[in-house]
Every structure is written in C-alpha cells, then in structure tokens.
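Archive maintenance. Older records in this collection stored only the sequence; we are now back-filling the structure field for every entry so that each record is complete. The fields below show one back-filled record exactly as it appears after the update. Entries are processed alphabetically, and Histidine phosphatase family protein is next in the queue.

ARCHIVE ENTRY
Title: Histidine phosphatase family protein
Organism field: Geobacter benzoatilyticus
Length field: 171
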Amino acid sequence: MKLYVIRHAAAIESDTAVRDEDRWLTPAGRKVFRKNARRLAGKGVAPECIITSPLARAVQTAEILAAAIDFQGEILVSREMAPGFDVEGLLRLIAANGMPHSLAIVGHEPDLGALAGRLLGRKEALPLGKGAIVALKFAPAKREAPACFRWLIHRGDITRDLPGSAVARLN
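Back-filled structure field:
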C-alpha cells in the first residue's frame, strides 16, 4: 500500500478566543501547503482515499490536497484521526475503508511523527514540519518495521533520503 502521511499546514496560534478544534489555516500556511500539494500532484500521486482529522486545520489541509491532485472522491473525516491517533487507529481506518492500495491521511503532531517512526521501525519519532508529506510503502500485515520510506516533501522541496536528526527537526 502507498501511504501518504500529511501534517496539517500552519494554523493560527492557540488562544482563549478560538477553540483548538476550530483553529484555521493561516494564509501563509495555505500558500506553503499548496506548493507541497502541487509537488505531490507533479509526482502523479492519486490516492484512492483521503482521510482527515475533524479539526478545522486538518480538514482545510485535506481540501487543498484534494484540489491540487484533482481528487474526485469524498474526503472522509474521522474522529479516529483526531489527536491521539496511533498505529492501531491506522489499521482500523484501513480495514474500515476496504484496504485501499493508496491512502492519504491528514492529522497532527506529535501523533503522525510517532506513527511514521514506529512504522519505519525507528526507536524515535520522525517529527514532521507543518504541511509536510511523507510517502511510505506500507505492508499492514508485517509486524516489525512494516513501512519503507519513499520520500518527503516539505516547503516545496523533496528528499529521497530518510531524514536524520537535522532534517527531522523541520518546523
């Protein structure tokens, strides 16, 4: 399975006037993520399914993604993708959606970084910058290190090397 792990783009800061789940993307966050999404589209990526956290900033990121890749399906909003998401949640989503050959998930840190790290068999998380897209080849039935790193898009740049500690600290 091709798995695209996507952290939501930059959103407004937390404050007492706006609930966390209602925080929306900033204009700069939208601009940067559009660049990442266009780069993804240029690679010919066409996931069968896009599943997003219900938080506003993740839904908006998923909508930008869908527009950039000309996604014709329905973006699925799942409480499973809300903060607290983990590998077991991913496996439930995959099973509930008929084991798609390609899946894009949009969510939050530190959950997605921990998920990517665990799937890659790393002891540490693979922290993701805002709007980052990580492509993995994922074998759900495999227990240890069920994923292989393919590439990462961040701020419009693509790397095919598994990020080390310096690159993984992108914000």
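Update note: Strands lie at 2-7, 49-52, 75-77, 102-107, 133-138, 147-154, 157-159. The radius of gyration is 15 Å.
Entry marked complete.
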